[in-house]
Amino acid sequence: MVDVAKNLHDVLDNLPDGVRLVAISKFHPNEYIEAAYKAGQRVFGESHEQELQKKVETLPKDIEWHFIGHLQTNKVKYIAPYISMIEAVDSMKLMKEINKQASKHDRVIKILLELHIAEEETKYGLTLDACRQLLADGEWRDLKNVHICGLMMMASNVDEQEQIRHEMMTAANFFDEVKAKYFADDDEFKERSWGMSHDYKIAVQCRSTLVRVGTAIFGPRVY
């Protein structure tokens, strides 16, 4: 049995003020989430809408659920009633669908724009230029049920810490650029979501405000 509470506190002890933990609970059983909840954790991340739906129905109602995986437009309607934040939005098409489904439930859903900075082709996300273009086009301003609250990215899955640091700082600097240009008056545009179990300590040094940690808390995933 994994000592979830101890692991959770070990991670939290490494997070300075202003950095929140998203405990990545996908493929982990309810009892692990309940153990983290009892230890004070309230923000959890999932990436499969069917698994998430079951957990939402059976776990405490004050949990803040973040959708952290690649989200297909046809799945948005299933999570729109309750999701707190969708962390990986990488197209205007997806943003419009989130807006449409959120409006049906009279909700405003917080989202993060996903950047593709890592050199791995398997990663989703917008290139910096594509993100600049999306914001410059301005269509997002018409979406009343979506609120862009920041950026997210995944660094390359490598051992080379300097590469990870470089990619995260690229994202941090880009955040400053778009914050100044488009969101200077929006206090909600503040989130920088990077850092996972293997690199969250570097992420903290690279101005992350949200770290997504699963394995270091819950142990290896149970598929």
3D architecture notes:
The chain is 39% helix and 18% strand. By secondary structure, the chain is of the alpha/beta class. The protein has helices at residues 4-12, 30-38, 49-58, 76-79, 92-104, 128-137, 161-182, 200-205, 215-218; strands at residues 20-24, 43-46, 64-67, 85-89, 109-115, 146-153, 191-193, 210-213. The mean pLDDT is 96.
Question: Can you give keywords for this protein?
Answer:
single chain; 223 residues; alpha/beta; 9 helices; 8 strands; 39% helix
The chain-level structural class is alpha/beta
Radius of gyration: 17 Å
Helix content: 25-40%
Main β-sheet description: 8 strands, parallel
Mean pLDDT: 96
Helix count? Answer: 9
Please tell me what the overall shape is: globular
Low-confidence stretches: none
Percent of residues in beta strands? 15-25%
Going across the biggest sheet, name each strand in turn.
Answer: 7-6-5-4-3-2-1-8
Q: Whole-Å distance between the termini?
A: 16 Å
Order of helices and strands: HEHEHEHEHEHEHEHEH
The count of β-strands is: 8
Secondary-structure blueprint:
Layout: H1 4-12, E1 20-24, H2 30-38, E2 43-46, H3 49-58, E3 64-67, H4 76-79, E4 85-89, H5 92-104, E5 109-115, H6 128-137, E6 146-153, H7 161-182, E7 191-193, H8 200-205, E8 210-213, H9 215-218
Parallel strand pairs: 1-2, 1-8, 2-3, 3-4, 4-5, 5-6, 6-7
